[in-house]
């Protein structure tokens, strides 16, 4: 996400930061490069022009030029202006006053609407709501089936729509059915077309009129760049959107849509989709995204994911064990599975400051390694798990056989366990505080 743009901006900033003093010409030359980088990332032309002129106005101020670290000040100004361009604050979902609330998802076919409905359902449930999925794409029975499958995968009820029902009837019946099921939020997966057409818009307007949704969200494919922005404008004109969700931000989207959508349409980007899994949805925070783009990492999202995955009680128990040197291989496996719950290791490392795509590609991280580790630990006896010192030659051979690995694998695991003990001890001393110290501002 944004790798190309990040690399280009960092090259510009490196030059600016390298100088003790800056002239107007240095700044103008630097900002010209920033503008080019934005256009290459497919940022809307007018938006790029406006943001550069805002940055320039502040950067050419005397307090920047005279400061001891003018380059750094400019990076801060760019960060501020990028944040503003993307909407400043995170905008939460609007549930309105009515119960049940209903969120209508609209968008073109293939934009990721159905997948996003499943992701949102999971997100809402994690946040204490009781979602109810409603498939309305009666023209494509496969779409109804897809949502039913997703619903049963994540354990969220799905309204039993059929291809014979009329879209508006489905929605009004689904509201009654949601109440019966004890649900408080309907997620309506509307039909999509390959292109915007009158028939589709009329159907969406009719649904809007009949159920008065608390929120209409457009799901658009980030890979389509400025097309996504144009689509958002068209849907907004007819339906008055509450916000946008950009899917496929994990692909090689250049980022232009995320950067321009708020500035062009006035409608906030509320979430981004970052993968095909149901957990791959992130609430969108303009400031965190600006800091990711500028290569400062996204430590806050990282901390949030960590907090979600870590069971505080368990963490306290572990801390006690560590202090008493009773941290066993069983605890090690527990730690690994809670880290795995957070997502792929590469995705997590990618959120940390100063890591770029090239470095990440160079790291030899294989999530399958964890599966191997679990298999090895599972092949140990409880006694071995509690006291790794007894694992010698013949035990190692038995464990390797049992887990379908080699003695070298077992040795490697024992080595990383002892290393992990050291790291965990260090981390526990500083706790989350040490992570927060890594924040750029
Ligand atoms: P719909 O026609 O709008 O309902 O689109 P689908 O939900 O069926 O999604 C179309 C394709 O995009 C599917 O293959 C999804 O797995 C994929 N997809 C959806 N969201 C994301 C995302 O955030 N990242 C990636 N990589 N793929 C996605």
TrEMBL record:
Swiss-Prot/TrEMBL catalytic activity: GTP + H2O = GDP + phosphate + H(+)
Catalytic class of the enzyme: hydrolase
Keyword annotations: Coiled coil, Cytoplasm, GTP-binding, Hydrolase, Nucleotide-binding, Ribonucleoprotein, RNA-binding, Signal recognition particle
Coiled-coil ranges (or none): 305-335
Gene Ontology molecular-function annotations: 7S RNA binding; GTP binding; GTPase activity
PROSITE patterns to which the protein is assigned, alphabetical: SRP54
GO annotation terms (biological process): SRP-dependent cotranslational protein targeting to membrane
Any GO CC annotation of this UniProt entry: signal recognition particle
Record-given protein name: Signal recognition particle protein
Organism: Desulfamplus magnetovallimortis
Record-listed E.C. numbers: 3.6.5.4
InterPro entries membership: AAA+_ATPase, P-loop_NTPase, Signal_recog_part_SRP54_M_sf, Signal_recog_particl_SRP54_hlx, Signal_recog_particle_SRP54_M, SRP, SRP54, SRP54_GTPase_dom
Entry similarity comment: Belongs to the GTP-binding SRP family. SRP54 subfamily.
Domain notes for this protein: Composed of three domains: the N-terminal N domain, which is responsible for interactions with the ribosome, the central G domain, which binds GTP, and the C-terminal M domain, which binds the RNA and the signal sequence of the RNC.
Job description of the protein: Involved in targeting and insertion of nascent membrane proteins into the cytoplasmic membrane. Binds to the hydrophobic signal sequence of the ribosome-nascent chain (RNC) as it emerges from the ribosomes. The SRP-RNC complex is then targeted to the cytoplasmic membrane where it interacts with the SRP receptor FtsY.
Subunit relationships: Part of the signal recognition particle protein translocation system, which is composed of SRP and FtsY.
Domain of life from the UniProt record: Bacteria
Residues that bind GTP: 107-114, 189-193, 247-250
HAMAP family attached to this UniProt entry: SRP54 (MF_00306)
Domain SRP54-type proteins GTP-binding residue range list: 268-281
Primary location recorded for the protein, binned into one broad class: cytoplasm
């Amino acid at each position: 996400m944004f790798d190309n743009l990040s690399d280009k901006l960092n090259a510009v900033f490196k030059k600016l930061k390298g100088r003790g003093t800056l002239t107007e010409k240095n700044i103008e030359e630097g900002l010209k490069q920033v503008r080019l980088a934005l256009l290459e990332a497919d940022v809307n032309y007018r938006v790029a022009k406006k943001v550069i002129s805002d940055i320039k106005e502040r950067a050419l101020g005397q307090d920047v030029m005279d400061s001891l670290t003018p380059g750094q000040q400019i990076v801060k100004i760019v960060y501020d202006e990028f944040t503003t361009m993307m909407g400043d604050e995170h905008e939460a979902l609007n549930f309105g006053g009515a119960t049940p609330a209903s969120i209508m998802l609209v968008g073109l076919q293939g934009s990721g609407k159905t997948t996003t409905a499943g992701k949102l359902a999971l997100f809402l449930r994690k946040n204490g709501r009781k979602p109810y999925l409603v498939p309305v794409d009666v023209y494509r029975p496969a779409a109804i089936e897809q949502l039913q499958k997703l619903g049963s995968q994540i354990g969220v009820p799905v309204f039993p729509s059929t291809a014979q029902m009329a879209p508006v009837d489905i929605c009004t019946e689904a509201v009654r059915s949601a109440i019966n099921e004890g649900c408080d939020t309907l997620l309506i997966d509307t039909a999509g077309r390959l292109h915007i057409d009158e028939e589709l818009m009329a159907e969406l307007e009719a649904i809007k009129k009949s159920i008065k949704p608390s929120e209409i969200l457009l799901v658009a494919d980030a890979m389509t760049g400025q097309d996504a922005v144009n689509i958002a404008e068209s849907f907004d004109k007819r339906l008055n959107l509450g916000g946008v969700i950009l899917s496929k931000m994990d692909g090689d989207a250049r980022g232009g849509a995320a950067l321009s959508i708020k500035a062009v349409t006035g409608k906030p980007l509320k979430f981004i989709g970052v993968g095909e899994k149901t957990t791959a949805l992130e609430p969108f925070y303009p400031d965190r995204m600006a800091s990711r783009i500028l290569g400062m990492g996204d430590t806050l999202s990282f901390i949030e994911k960590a907090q979600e995955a870590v069971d505080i009680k368990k963490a306290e128990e572990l801390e006690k064990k560590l202090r008493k040197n009773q941290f066993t291989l069983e605890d090690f496996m527990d730690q690994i599975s809670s880290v795995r719950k957070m997502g792929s290791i590469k995705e997590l490392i990618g959120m940390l400051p100063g890591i770029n795509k090239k470095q990440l590609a160079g790291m030899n991280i294989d999530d399958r390694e964890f599966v191997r580790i679990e298999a090895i630990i599972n092949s140990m006896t409880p006694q071995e798990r509690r006291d790794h010192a007894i694992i010698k030659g013949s035990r190692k051979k038995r464990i390797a056989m049992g887990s379908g690995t080699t003695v070298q694998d077992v040795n490697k695991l024992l080595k990383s366990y002892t290393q992990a003990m050291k790291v965990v001890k260090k981390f526990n001393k500083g706790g989350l505080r040490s992570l927060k110290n890594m924040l750029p501002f």
